Amino acid sequence: xxxxxxxxxxxxxxxxxxxxxxxxxxxxxxxxxxxxxxxxxxxxxxxxxxxxxxxxxxxxxxxxxxxxxxxxxxxxxxxxxxxxxxxxxxxxxxxxxxxxxxxxxxxxxxxxxxxxxxxxxxxxxxxxxxxxxxxxxxxxxxxxxxxxxxxxxxxxxxxxxxxxxxxxxxxxxxxxxxxxxxxxxxxxxxxxxxxxxxxxxxxxxxxxxxxxxxxxxxxxxxxxxxxxxxxxxxxxxxxxxxxxxxxxxxxxxxxxxxxxxxxxxxxxxxxxxxxxxxxxxxxxxxxxxxxxxxxxxxxxxxxxxxxxxxxxxxxxxxxxxxxxxxxxxxxxxxxxxxxxxxxxxxxxxxxxxxxxxxxxxxxxxxxxxxxxxxxxxxxxxxxxxxxxxxxxxxxxxxxxxxxxxxxxx
Amino acid sequence: xxxxxxxxxxxxxxxxxxxxxxxxxxxxxxxxxxxxxxxxxxxxxxxxxxxxxxxxxxxxxxxxxxxxxxxxxxxxxxxxxxxxxxxxxxxxxxxxxxxxxxxxxxxxxxxxxxxxxxxxxxxxxxxxxxxxxxxxxxxxxxxxxxxxxxxxxxxxxxxxxxxxxxxxxxxxxxxxxxxxxxxxxxxxxxxxxxxxxxxxxxxxxxxxxxxxxxxxxxxxxxxxxxxxxxxxxxxxx
Lengths: 409, 237
Fold this sequence. Notes:
By secondary structure, chain A is an alpha/beta fold. Chain A is built from 12 helices and 8 strands. Chain B has helices at 13-64, 71-76, 81-97, 102-130, 150-163, 179-188, 210-216, and strands spanning 136-141, 168-173, 196-199, 202-205.
């Protein structure tokens, strides 16, 4: 009875949040909010520093830097700071190859984590905007020109991009491709309601003056990009999203890699949520405090709860099958009878939730690519991904509870 | 393509209300549709029971007029065992769902038990007068959590019904407050040590596997085996 009530409560909350974002999306399309990316003259463009923090990125660094060098942006206004954070492979050697380009500066330091790499670059630059590009990502040539004009709005302290999966070599990456479309929608809508709480590593930009005011980057449970976003929100600044600033990022190709990455993300989120718990449910932070942060926390609990419930039902089915076997009845006769089609309210609500997620993926595709159709691998994502997510949710909750910490690699 | 936008993060209560209203509407629709289908199922079962009731009444009437009818005519009009087990299975499903009008389900179950008893009595009379040899099993179960082997017993009987379509398995909820059923229980002297099977007038307590029943009821071998499965189930829990 309690389990059943909890199921409906969690379903209501998750469905409400999905509907809420969709309503905001539709309201926006109806009201046609004015574009804030007015064209700017080259002479008026701000100086920009793009930091590439690297720790053993020899395999991917070259492509990342090449994509940065191909950016359509005046060379005299662009700095590319490659920070070798104590790599033990050929990262530094590869980085040095680019030093001949006037835009590139290479720094080498002892390993200290991403936040120390960002702060080193911040200390060595006079640029007005500072951005980050993880060394496993590549950007589209016009990406920076899509981002920069948004800073014309003085209230905006940071801009996040539209992140896409770089390669889809296997089923896992295809499913992540769909997930990233959903993230494009979420990031865009969260920006629309002033509630972005993550400035992801691939190609997020910050007003350098604001970052300095806020005390630069800090160690934050291996999720510094989340902590910085929360600090920006706390200070009352806005974080925008520019889905047309396209960045492609490498995604884990193995379950183990994906698991490790997501445990880190979720662990970091939970620990940061504890650190910034005063924002939860706090009306002072508007939509972020009242709905976005609480729902993000609840979604972790809901994911685990639904997973355990499915496991329970599976166990129940297995125990019935064992009983059947013990009775000597053999295998059941399979036949179709419409009478036994599942028609419980829960069943319909699960389908409604799936339909809603599908709608959000379509909206994500529209926002990110201009195409309304979801990726072809969407059915795979809907079928299997929800069974993978709880695995890292459980691991992350365990680690966050016992404060075990997580590693990048 | 969408425009990049940042609105202020201030609350817009109207958006919250609209989202809440739509979510509530989705929930209400889900419950309404589910309830509609559950009621439809109850109606289906009720219709089947009505039809079965009419068949039994007709058979009884035919039986009374036996002198004017041949046994063959009557035997052709008996209710198929698969109909009984199918109806029982549908009732079990409705009961297990736990949704909808459980009072209505209870009432359908009571009527089903009475129909089973009437069919059982009629078949006994038919067997005597027309020299038929129908094979019966009376199965008493409880679903009040005091019968750990009842589910297993249900599977074994379902399997037998599927293997031998002519086998008549009458399953009864021991705790059902129906006069005719309680009379049957006292006539057969069935204790509440469930599951209990009444085979050829003898009561067997405890779980009996498919093999056990086949040994107890050698007449089963005289029944024709099913080539393909019927959809009958009688898993009473």
